Amino acid sequence: xxxxxxxxxxxxxxxxxxxxxxxxxxxxxxxxxxxxxxxxxxxxxxxxxxxxxxxxxxxxxxxxxxxxxxxxxxxxxxxxxxxxxxxxxxxxxxxxxxxxxxxxxxxxxxxxxxxxxxxxxxxxxxxxxxxxxxxxxxxxxxxxxxxxxxxxxxxxxxxxxxxxxxxxxxxxxxxxxxxxxxxxxxxxxxxxxxxxxxxxxxxxxxxxxxxxxxxxxxxxxxxxxxxxxxxxxxxxxxxxxxxxxxxxxxxxx
Length: 253
Fold this sequence. Notes:
Elements: H1 7-13, H2 27-41, E1 48-51, E2 73-80, H3 83-102, E3 106-107, E4 127-136, H4 144-154, E5 164-166, H5 175-186, E6 196-201, E7 204-209, H6 218-235, E8 240-242, E9 249-252
Parallel strand pairs: 5-6
Antiparallel strand pairs: 1-2, 2-4, 3-4, 6-7, 7-9, 8-9
């Protein structure tokens, strides 16, 4: 299977797709998605790929009005039910989303606007279904209602400088940090609020939830932001990894 773009290119191209063509994904691409699911699950998660392509059966029932078209493939984002589990789900789900985009597919992080009775996740002890990622082919033209939804959500986006806390002006930060902050701004948000800031002080990078009132879904966003930052930093030559938790640092290798 030929990957159509790098992970960083996928990060820059990705948008939340809410209008899908009634077109099943070929088996070889489904296999690529399953491979990525397996990679994620090696870190203690329990993601589950549901594919109804062969039978032409929708994999999940998405909320009418918010979505249109049929989705024959989706990934159930199952993981530990605590906050660290939520962060891990966010982090590795973004890996999955960028893999899908690199394969020419469209996705959307869906936390609540789907019929939970339409999916049957396998839940282990202390696990929960955090959300789903529908995967398919985006329509060539976005319906008017979908454009309105996207505009309404993006209108709440914060300015780039609002995503970083530092003792230095944004323009003076290292290029890889600036790229990471921009990547955080471009990322999806489970709660559509982008509640994560990157903190750069004394040469150290951390990420934190800046909202005073926190809910468990925000920890998905914390993980998403960390993965986005990591991909961008690596694209600018700084490989590293994150420690999980609100005080977890980004550790350059």
